[in-house]
């Protein structure tokens, strides 16, 4: 019995270890912060992500939820709001993607300021799922931004770099670079956010 159980235990442990190490994963690098930047005459909440694995990802879908405290009838409640995105899916994801939530009058973020975001202890939850080509299976990735990881009065800088022979390439080290805007450019609500 011992001579059977010993090797069997070793084979099962090795199988579990190999299965764990070869499990398909999605390696996505998210920008260190989200930004509220100018967008189509108003403002938009934006973050960047880049595919840093050699394999291709297809049918990539993103969902973003806002979690914050709100006051209802004198009580403070934590509520979830799904944010409508400019684009919530792409067919192929082999470079980078700037995910944008337009802040309009219908947005849960309409009229938001750095102060109101801090008071409500806002957090943005990000869920990404995609089809991984090597193992032909669905993979997921998650990230989040707290209220103090959102930057205001900035816009994203270019992520592109000129490679050898004039080829344009993505520089992942530029994923977090921003350009400063005049004070109040996005930390104050835009006209488009006023309810009609």
Would you write up a description of this structure?
The chain has 196 residues and is mainly beta. The protein contains two helices and 14 strands. A hairpin with a 2-residue loop joins strand 4 (57-72) and strand 5 (75-82). The radius of gyration is 22 Å and the shape is globular.
Give a quick precis of the structure.
This protein has helices spanning 2-21, 114-119, and strands spanning 28-30, 34-39, 42-51, 57-72, 75-82, 89-92, 96-103, 123-132, 137-146, 150-152, 154-156, 160-162, 168-170, 178-180. It is mostly beta strands.
Helix/strand-derived category reads mainly beta
H/E element order: HEEEEEEEHEEEEEEE
Q: Calculate the terminal CA-CA distance, rounded to whole Å.
A: 79 Å
- The tally of strands reads 14
Uncertain parts: none
What best-fitting shape do the alpha-carbon axes yield? globular
| Strand proportion | over 45%
Overall mean pLDDT score? Answer: 89
Helix content: 10-25%
* DSSP summary: helix tally: 2
Major sheet description: 5 strands, mixed
Work out the radius of gyration: 22 Å
Which terms would index this structure?
single chain; 196 residues; mainly beta; five-stranded mixed sheet; five-stranded antiparallel sheet; 14 strands; 46% strand; globular
What is the secondary structure topology, with strand pairs?
Elements: H1 2-21, E1 28-30, E2 34-39, E3 42-51, E4 57-72, E5 75-82, E6 89-92, E7 96-103, H2 114-119, E8 123-132, E9 137-146, E10 150-152, E11 154-156, E12 160-162, E13 168-170, E14 178-180
Parallel strand pairs: 2-10
Antiparallel strand pairs: 1-3, 2-3, 3-7, 4-5, 4-6, 4-8, 8-9, 11-14, 12-13
């Amino acid at each position: 019995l011992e001579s059977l159980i010993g090797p069997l235990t070793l084979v099962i442990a090795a199988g579990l270890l190999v299965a764990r190490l070869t499990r398909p994963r999605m390696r996505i690098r998210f920008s260190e912060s989200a930004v509220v930047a100018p967008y189509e005459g108003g403002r938009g909440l934006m973050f960047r992500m880049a595919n840093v694995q050699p394999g291709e990802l297809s049918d990539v879908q993103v969902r973003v939820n806002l979690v914050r405290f709100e006051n209802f009838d004198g009580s403070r409640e934590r509520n979830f709001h799904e944010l409508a995105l400019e684009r919530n899916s792409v067919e192929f994801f082999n470079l980078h993607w700037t995910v944008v939530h337009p802040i309009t009058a219908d947005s849960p973020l309409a009229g938001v300021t750095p102060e109101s975001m801090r008071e409500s202890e806002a957090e943005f939850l990000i869920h990404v799922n995609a089809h991984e080509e090597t193992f032909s299976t669905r993979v997921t990735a998650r990230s989040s931004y707290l209220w103090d990881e959102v930057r205001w009065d900035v816009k994203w800088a270019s992520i592109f770099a000129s490679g050898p022979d004039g080829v344009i390439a993505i520089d992942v080290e530029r994923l977090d670079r921003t350009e400063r805007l005049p004070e109040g450019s996005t930390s104050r609500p835009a006209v488009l956010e006023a309810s009609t």
